[in-house]
Design brief:
Order of helices and strands: EHEHHEHEHEHEHEHEHHHHHEHEHEHEHE
Helix content: 40-55%
Shape: globular
Bound molecules: uridine-5'-diphosphate-glucuronic acid
Number of strands: 13
Number of helices: 17
């Protein structure tokens, strides 16, 4: 069995590590973030992810977590799982990928360097150029969802292997031979585009249903029935047709933007994606606009209760969460905030929420008790037990904004 090196201990790196560890491989996972590695070495996770800690604890060969990148690079197959954040111009910042490849080329030129990070089409070829072809390179994009990362790593919907050499395609197909899901082998540029096209399509589906929801609000149609009726057509499918306050998280906003950037930089403007992003940006202001419709522009003296800070349920991740812009807008309009989220807690959120200080409630009910309005931003299952009538009993007005349609 080849040894597996992993560069980057974020969601993708740790889910990949968990997937290989559960299948009995020797795994070395390295990250330059000392704090994160210390946490992992103590048997904890740097973020919440259902079932992941248990996989690490149960693995027959314990995963080695280290800040020494060369240890991971010395493995037979090295997965590059570093971040590709959004640059100021909207493109993907590839500096961590280039630096990981350079390190690997310095340490171990026999390694197969596999890019799992989401990278724009053409990146694998650029990496090869940067390191003068010193490593064999493949693209093996990751499709895991936060909150279900372990299940997705163990049984993904599909495995995409991109390599410009059939022997590399065979080597990687062999690595996954016990995972009984479809494997598609392509060249690197195609594999890279499959990932971007998939995320962009899902984001477009969400913006589409959100735009239909805007229409429903005006003409008095029922969005949930519209989505249900559409979803019954199996060519459309019911998934990703839930209206909400706009998509967020560490993936969709940056990936849609990077594909738009790529298209316009090579003279192929991505017009649908421009609309997808535009609808999403507007959608993220909708909850605040509904408050203004009710109270007027001056929210001074009002207390707004917010249920949900995470960008979706089952995670403590609030990167690009729609609640960030809501909180900033409310505070700017003079309101006080009382927020409750079952998982996003503590001081760490302060910077993300524009340095804004706001009250944290310890329960959903204590957040709304005496507040002027409630806005639901995350569809946590625990909110589903309440009806609109239940929550109104605790509020000083009848203002409830529930773009997720969580309340009964
Ligand atoms: C997304 C993709 O679903 C994964 O396949 C992909 O691997 C991952 O990005 C990535 O590139 O790493 P994730 O960001 O974990 O996964 O979250 P999703 O479950 O896709 O949700 C994204 C956003 O869309 C959330 O804000 C969610 O609330 C919103 N959403 C989702 C809706 O508003 N409506 C829906 O019907 C579905």
């Amino acid at each position: 069995m080849p040894s597996i090196g992993i560069l980057g201990a974020g969601y993708v790196g740790l889910a990949t590590a968990a997937g290989f560890a559960a299948r009995g491989f020797k795994v070395v996972c390295a990250d330059i973030d000392e704090k994160k590695i210390n946490v992992l070495q103590m048997g904890e996770l740097p973020f919440f992810e259902e079932g992941m800690k248990e996989v690490f604890l149960a693995s027959s060969i314990p995963v080695i977590f280290t800040t020494d990148l060369s240890l991971a690079c010395s493995c037979d197959i090295v997965f590059c799982c570093v971040g590709t954040p959004m640059s100021i111009d909207g493109s993907a910042d590839l500096s961590y990928v280039f630096s990981a490849a350079t390190t690997c080329a310095e340490v171990n030129q026999r390694a197969l360097f596999v890019i799992k990070s989401t990278t724009p089409p053409g990146t694998a070829k650029r990496v090869s150029g940067i390191i003068d072809g010193k490593l064999r390179i493949a693209s093996n994009p990751e499709f895991l969802r936060e909150g279900q990362a372990v299940a997705d790593a163990l049984k993904p919907s599909r495995i995409i292997i991109g390599a410009d050499d059939t022997s590399i395609q065979s080597e990687l197909s062999e690595l996954y031979s016990d995972v009984k899901v479809p494997i598609l082998c392509t060249d690197t540029v195609t594999a890279e585009l499959i990932k971007y096209a998939s995320n962009s399509f899902l984001a477009t589906k969400i913006s589409f249903i959100n735009e239909i929801d805007n229409l429903c609000h005006t003409i008095g149609a029922n969005i949930l029935d519209v989505a249900k009726g559409m979803g019954l057509d199996d060519r459309i499918g019911a998934k990703f047709l839930q209206p909400g306050p706009g998509y967020g998280g560490g993936c969709f906003p940056k990936d849609v933007s990077a594909l738009q950037f790529l298209g316009s930089s090579i003279g192929v403007p991505m017009k649908i994606l421009s609309a997808t992003s535009m609808v999403n940006v507007q959608r993220q202001t909708l909850s605040f606009n509904r408050l203004v419709e009710f109270f007027g522009v001056d929210l001074a003296g009002k207390t707004i209760a917010i249920w949900g800070l995470a960008f979706k349920p089952n995670t403590d991740d609030f990167r690009d969460s729609p609640s960030i812009s809501l909180i900033n807008s409310c505070i700017k309009a003079g309101a006080s905030i009382t927020a409750y989220d079952p998982m996003v807690r503590g001081e760490s959120t302060k910077r993300a929420f524009g340095g804004q200080v706001f009250k944290r409630a310890l329960s959903a009910i204590s957040a709304i008790d005496g507040a002027d309005a409630l806005v639901i931003m995350t569809d946590w299952p625990e909110f589903e037990k309440y009806s609109i009538a239940d929550v109104k009993k605790y509020l000083r007005t009848s203002c409830v904004v529930d773009l997720r349609h969580v309340l009964k």
